Give the backbone structure.
Amino acid sequence: MVQVAFRGRYEYSLDAKGRLSIPAKFREIIVREYNSELVITTALDGYLDCYPLAIWTEVEAKIYALPTSRREVRQFKRHYITGAVECTLDKQGRVLLPPTLRNWAGLNREDGNNVVIAGQINKLELWSKERWDFETDIIKSSAESIAGVLAELDINI
């Protein structure tokens, strides 16, 4: 059930209390379709995944069903599920990012709190600007390899 259409990228700043304003385009979807309820968790690459609660429930069910016989699966479950925090947009369209999540994603006051909010169809990714720029540099240098993998998957863009 992929109905959500989080597309685009925005740069925002955290306020002094660690709140992040969600862009109006995304906020409208979250409020209208998902009753302002979100789950934010620690993604593997040092950023945060932000799901509407209803979609998170589906993701969580898939994670729960994964076999725990492999150590990597147990480690992933431990990391991703224990990092999850339920949040609600406030009336100004902000979400409070707890210190543990801010620390994981490198979102601290010293770097100006710049956050890249990237739409990923069914979720948002929350990146520190510094890490986003580094990731973008990696993508640029790996473009040919990425195009090859996409071609193998029959995706021609």
Notes: Residues 53-65 form the longest helix (13 residues). The two ends are 24 Å apart (CA to CA). Strands lie at 9-13, 19-21, 37-42, 48-52, 85-88, 94-96, 114-119, 124-128. The mean pLDDT is 89.
